[in-house]
Design brief:
Elements: H1 6-9, H2 14-20, E1 25-30, E2 33-46, E3 73-79, E4 83-90, E5 97-108, H3 110-116, H4 130-137, E6 153-156, E7 166-169, E8 186-189
Antiparallel strand pairs: 1-2, 1-6, 2-5, 2-8, 3-4, 4-5, 7-8
The structure holds a DNA duplex.
Amino acid sequence: MAKLSKEYFLNEDVLFLAKDLLGKKLFSNINGHLTGGIIVETEAYQAPEDKASHAFGNKRTPRTEPFYLEGGIAYVYLCYGIHNLFNIVTNKENIPHAILIRAIEPSEGIEIMLERRRRIKISSDLTAGPGALSVALGINVNHNKEDLTGNTIWLEDNLKVIDESIIKGPRVGVAYAGEWASMPWRFKIKDNHWVSKAK
DNA sequence: GAGTAGATCGGCT
DNA sequence: GCCGATCTACTCG
């Protein structure tokens, strides 16, 4: 399958991309271990308007720098002091859009992912939720600003998911963002076993 | 099965 | 010094 190109991530419509990424494959090749799966759940963050984004109001701090780079790179940050959350930066330079990958359906390197997650058996929560997914794929804050068209973390074209199979809903864990918290910018594949359990 | 506390630390005020 | 784009384990039933 074809690797997604730089141009793909430069698309100006982050909501389209968040939806379009469903069904595509996310891979990592870290320390010689190939792991990956099909994206089944995403969330779009579109600053500067979006109060739920770290780059709300074009805020610039060392942490938010990746948002302003050209699309096609990773934004990885530490949440709750424990979890590495993996985002894809999109759109042109200086437009702080990003997509949080919330869940994948494991396909490649399942043994490796089980080991990283310290699990014996595969279960539906292996890669469900942004923190869990990063552990399974071996992604951490060292991969911040990583080029997503290279050979460490990349995406590939795969299934086409039709609109009828996509559920839209409000994003998770962003209640502080007021009216922006209720925007239906979370997308997931309907009836998929591998989506996160978050409400 | 549902509900909740605790973990744990960088970023920002 | 406070708190977060979360997960797990543990309780109770």
